[in-house]
């Protein structure tokens, strides 16, 4: 800086000394004036403030001012805390102006002394100089809204409502201002002050703002500038759509989260479902023996589950306490999942748990009574009279030799006598029950701004539809958060204990096979062990070559009522610790680490009186009674460090960048032993066994895997109109070959907020119009730890010279690389008529390269396969979501909305390896009643391959097949198999409606499937491929061919040859299901608060899986029946 010599005295002459003396006197006088109380005005002019704070305590505001100015605040803590939270907006403004606008409305004032600012209660002003208005802010249900910003329009003067929704605002003298009430997720409301002393306001939900933020589990991004395809589900959404578990609730909201129905496991509470997102991305080719872990709940197409930044298992997700969840984000395209690299190809489900709010202690309890009623409507078994008539029509009581036939006729007459006596046992009623379970959840939260806490306990008892089956889960968690200046420490401890019991009644189909003319008890009421004892059947319908068959039928109730044990349990402890440091308002660093430890145990005891031991004789009698014990442990840790920067430049340029580095390790081991020789039927204890299993040995599996990765993410938005999103991740995993353990994954996306364009400024119809496109890659490592390694297996008990022998089990592959999925997604989001109508649409193309599969080797190699990257799979689809408010009357508090979702996915195999071609040839030669699902280029992975059928020949009841050369034949040939439909619907989705009037609400959710095909397995097995002396579907009697000239759907009733895979059983599937109905009421909070100190109370009734209408009639729930669910839920908050 250039010096001004005229202002510099000449120290060499006496005049200069006199000038200095005069200057020092002036400075001394000026300082004395400040000390004497000239309000610090001149001093304060040195300071300007730049503050942008929302719902912040006064203490935090003072801390920010101290950081910017170096001044120190002195105040009474109790006085400051009583003023609640405030908003402060200041851009390079003088400190005096900021303090005045901040403190005056709160009845506070300040004194600036030297480098201190003293804040105190303002002196009482004359009544005409101030006006105070009070009131309460509630939501549409009458519940108080804490944290609502109440601001004078056109100024920065405002306050925040307290925990009970009350506010108190001092208005400037001589004004009649307009007040603005605003709250996140609510429609802002303006109210004119007209002299009233009390002003109560009701705010209503703003549906368009409920999804303002997208939580990806690594970074949190603004919805309006996010290019990925996501679905955000709030805790209110979960409460609305069902009361069973979180997995079914997600499916009821977004059909792209597809829970594949399994007609075998039905509603078994202890079996985990198979889930896909946007179709299958992997081939389900299993690895053998040591290279596979059959106990893993994950499959090749299962999505990744992330809770608060850390991976959890499907079982943990299923057992999660719904009351603990704040929101769920379903990430579907590459832009959303690329940051998860190797784990994101199948989609990602991100769960965010509730964090405590500052304020007084708040207690929330949710309890429900749950009923599971077995649904047996799909079963149409023959009754006693029908079954006996079927057996006679099938020729069961006929034979070429008269003496043998006479015995069969006497057997028939004896059974007919029982039928005439009225014996008609409905065996399906014995293993089922109406299960009554209950669920309880208790949550406590509170604390100050700098220290917050939450604790939760939950217990869930699921009583299954089969007797004795249940699932009991206990969850507990403790969350602590401490804030020191700009650093926040968080610790979340979660403990989960689960105990599952399987039904002692075994497989449900065992009861479906029992004939209705048998009784479980004799005439004296004693339980029968055998229903049919050494009954001899001759060749069916005179077929001597069939030979004699001695039939023994055990009473399934006998084994079910014996002492038994079939249960599993796990205990999981997870602790997540995080530190967040806001270095600057726009820059923060986060570090977090999660540690999870889990122990598992399985016990299965079979009594010595079980019928499976009836064949034991001689020395084997001592082996009766069996106990299988399994024990396992899992341990994992994961750490992440992230740096986030977000800044707005020149009010138009918004930049967000994020860096993240993470590493993790997973270990697991499982051991199992089986012991025998437990003579006493009630000794369900392993230590009482006398022998190890004959020819058996201990079994065990173990695995360890590690992964590491770095992420770079950047987002730029211009003027809230145009935005671009970039992500890149370098991932490494030990599961792959040593030459290919690291791979890059990336995504790029762009979007356009059309509604923010100038030409859309006056548009009253279209409120939001957003166009986005993304493209990127993600990978998959949903397989076992040692697939790239050469593995060996012991010969067993064979020992040579004290050495154990081993043989080569699987050949390693150092070049085994990543299975990579590339995905293009184009989406549009529209909102019309002030949020009355919302439409989201996404179109995607998903290509998976380097599919992991088994390569076939010559038999001379000593083993069959090794793991390699082969093949290419493509999924193309569309997703639509439409919701509309038909009625939205806020004054009458009446709302009615309808909505629907539609999903379509087409799956196609583009390339296959030589090994898969060999597998196809093997499957084509299979002589089976089930169809083949071949991996053939140009076909879907779900294509059904069967032999085409022309139906049943009316002249003889035989099936006519169409050969590849166009000729007709009665002989089924596997080489004639052709593609005959795809076992996947062309479209599927949900339909929903919501009606709410004041506190009363009604919700209904339906699902539909249209245009696909299904191979009716149960129809084959229950109508044609049946054993005539077992019970079956009534169509086996009524709809099978009996006489020449009859047009029948099924072959001759006397034809007991096996029915092979035939197009007769490929059927078009169109299905409509009522997934959930709910009716609830929420009581107004004012009366409850005043009389019972209850701030919120609701009571809701649910019906789930209410009905199912399908074009396909088949038995559903073969091993375990399906069930309808009824529940009554109570939610109360103190």
What is the element layout, followed by pairings?
Blueprint (H helix, E strand, L loop, with lengths): L13 H22 L5 H4 L3 E10 H12 L2 E3 L2 H5 L3 E10 H9 L4 E6 L2 E6 L8 E9 L10 E4 L5 E3 L5 E7 L5 E5 L6 E4 L8 E2 L10 E3 L4 E3 L7 E5 H7 L4 H8 L3 E4 L13 E4 L26 E4 L2 E3 L1 H5 L6 E7 L2 H4 L10 E6 L5 E17 L8 H10 L8 H19 L14 E13 L3 E13 L6 E15 L2 E15 L7 H4 L17 E8 L11 E6 L1 H5 L3 E21 L2 E20 L19 E24 L3 E24 L14 E2 L6 E20 L3 E12 L8 E12 L12 E15 L10 E10 L2 E8 L8 E14 L4 E13 L2 E5 L8 E5 L2 E18 L4 E18 L2 H11 L18 E4 L2 E4 L6 E4 L5 E2 L8 E5 L4 E11 L2 E16 L1 H8 L10 H4 L1 E2 L8 E3 L13 E17 L2 H8 L3 E15 L11 E12 L1
Parallel strand pairs: 2-5, 6-12, 18-21, 53-54
Antiparallel strand pairs: 1-3, 4-5, 6-9, 7-8, 7-10, 10-11, 13-14, 15-20, 16-17, 18-19, 20-21, 22-23, 22-57, 23-24, 24-25, 25-26, 26-29, 27-28, 29-30, 30-31, 31-32, 32-33, 32-34, 34-35, 35-36, 36-37, 37-40, 38-39, 40-41, 41-44, 42-43, 44-45, 45-51, 46-50, 47-48, 48-49, 51-52, 52-55, 55-56, 56-57
